[in-house]
Write a structure and sequence with these properties.
The chain is α/β, with parallel strands linked by helices. 28% of the residues lie in helices and 24% in strands. A hairpin with a 5-residue loop joins strand 14 and strand 15 (326-333). Helix 3 (105-116) runs parallel beside helix 6 (204-220).
């Protein structure tokens, strides 16, 4: 195969025009081009009047060596593919099947490949199945009655199920795990476009069906998935894992368990501390959600004449404040919704979500400020481990947001946020929020340094997106679950540095930041288990 890089065509091009461009680039005839595989497609929008797709693709041609000899630029190279390879089984005997704690992307993908290769994993999920979880979440948004064990954070598919479903990642991937994650998604019902779009996404509506299919495949391969099964303790003897306790009463023998608990499993973090599992406090970020008309964002990014098939445009923003802090967009949801993502009583947090069509009237994104252990150390709660000060900080902010909104999502216009006053009326932007909302003063919810940084960062973003700092842009809060506040320390074989047999994995363990990177860490963890142990086949 021959790889062609940076091949550009107008976004309105036809398949025939793509083939013509390939033949012209390679200087070959019509019958010499045998096969085309798209690897990457991105949009070049630097000239709004000349929007272009930029392709990276592999092609199969007659007499490949002759074509390569004629190539005179580095746009044309010999394709070198490194397919994902799952390791051969190890030699140690597993007495009990591996336990996977949590069915978010990390746990689900770990269980998927282990089940496929004969390890018959047992998946323990504290929340509900994706179908039932959707009903519980919808009920919470409608009534305000929270199920603390099954919500936007907990349940099959993890927090990523109720998100935009973005699948892009900046993680370096020499082993092919990224491609394998996308391939598995398509194997379970995702559209083929995610294999080559630069910014692939799925949407909540598609993710629910996909994770359900993954679970059924796990079960068909001999695995088991249990819902309403919350791991509440760990059996330990001589520094080795011996069992996990479910719902405080049922003890399940296990010498291997993957800890894929997600970034909001605060009760589990405390239990790990009780068991002296080595953990570190880490930086994360907090802030607010900001909503603008999607039409405004799309016209700024693509121009007013952009064809409809390009869909709702995304954006990515970073700004450095005078105080040295960075303010940046996170989990941007084109044509999406802000959601009440709470998982604890009397604490309110928000997230963003899109459906696959991204046809909502608003664009929303988190605008967040990095906080370090030095920032949140003053929020330490007497009698709790220092390593969990980040959890204490999150809880303080979320309780303040709950108080500000009296249980509803607190909302404020950006102009009023700048003036430190409660909003009294909307402008042209109407909130798209799943869950009840009310006007409040978010400046009273956030520490001063975060509020001031957000004002400066949002105003600075006006230079990049016209209208971004409009006074009637809608803010909601608080966004405090951007990533885990802790890292569970693991060694070179991905086991806990303080408990043999426990494999901290994914975003909650502090080793991922999004659906794809968490899924890749799940694959990586499964590989380590497979290299050590024989399967049951």
């Amino acid at each position: 195969m021959i790889r062609i890089q940076q091949l550009k065509l107008p976004v309105t091009h036809t398949q025939e025009e793509l083939e013509q461009k390939i033949r012209k680039t390679l200087k070959i005839g019509k019958h010499d081009l045998q096969e085309i595989e798209l690897l990457r497609r991105s949009i070049d929008a630097r000239k709004k009047s000349e929007l272009k797709y930029v392709y990276q693709l592999d092609v199969k041609v007659k007499d490949e060596n002759a074509v390569l000899r004629k190539a005179k630029n580095n746009q044309i190279v010999k394709a070198e593919k490194k397919p994902y390879v799952f390791p051969k089984s190890g030699e140690q005997t597993l007495v009990h099947r591996p336990v996977i704690i949590g069915s978010g992307p990390a746990g689900l993908f770990c269980a998927y490949v282990l089940a496929k290769h004969g390890y018959r994993p047992l998946v323990l999920e504290r929340g509900e199945s994706a179908e039932q979880r959707k009903k519980s979440v919808d009920a919470f948004w409608k009534t305000g009655v929270l199920n603390p064990e099954s919500n936007v954070q907990f349940g099959e598919g993890g927090a990523g199920t109720f998100s935009d479903g973005k699948l892009n990642t900046s993680v370096k991937d020499p082993s092919g795990r990224n491609r394998e994650v996308l391939r598995i998604f398509t194997e379970c019902g995702a559209p083929e476009e995610i294999l080559y779009d630069q910014k692939p996404h799925l949407g909540t509506d598609q993710l629910i069906g996909i994770v359900t299919t993954m679970r059924k495949k796990i079960e068909a391969w001999g695995g088991e998935v249990r819902f309403g099964a919350k791991v509440t303790d760990f059996g330990i003897e001589n520094g080795r894992l011996t069992s996990v306790t479910v719902n405080e009463t049922e003890k399940i023998a296990a010498e291997t368990a993957v800890l894929a608990i997600g970034h909001s499993a605060r009760d589990t973090f405390f239990k790990l501390c009780e068991n002296k599992i080595s953990m570190e406090a880490k930086s994360f970020a907090v802030g607010v959600r900001i909503e603008h008309p999607q039409k405004m964002i799309t016209e700024d990014q693509y121009g007013p004449e952009a064809p409809d098939f390009l869909g709702a445009a995304p954006y990515k923003l970073t700004n450095q404040c005078e105080n040295g802090r960075g303010v940046y967009s996170f989990c941007m949801c084109p044509g999406g919704y802000v959601v009440n993502a709470s998982s604890e009583a009397e604490r309110t947090c928000v997230n963003g979500m899109s459906y696959s069509d991204r046809e909502g009237k608003n664009a929303n994104s988190a605008m967040i400020v990095t906080v370090t252990p030095e920032d949140y150390r003053p929020y330490h709660v007497e009698g709790t481990p220092d390593v969990l000060d980040g959890v204490a900080f999150q809880r303080v902010l979320e309780h303040a947001a709950w108080e500000a909104g009296k249980g509803k999502v607190p909302v404020q216009l950006f102009g009023d946020f700048c003036e430190n006053r409660v909003s009294t009326a909307l402008g042209e932007v109407t909130p798209s929020i799943c869950g009840e909302w009310t006007f409040a003063n978010l400046r009273e919810v956030l520490p001063t340094f975060i509020g001031d940084s957000l004002v400066e960062g949002i105003r600075a973003s006006e230079r990049k997106i016209h209208g971004f700092s409009r006074p009637d842009a809608v803010l909601s809060g608080v966004e405090a679950r951007t990533s885990s506040p802790v890292r569970i320390v693991r060694n070179e074989t991905l086991e806990s540095s303080s408990l043999t047999g426990l494999y901290p994995c994914g975003e909650g363990a502090g080793y991922a930041g999004g659906i794809t990177s968490a899924a890749m860490d799940g694959l990586k963890t499964a590989e380590e288990i497979a290299k050590k142990y024989m399967n049951f086949s």
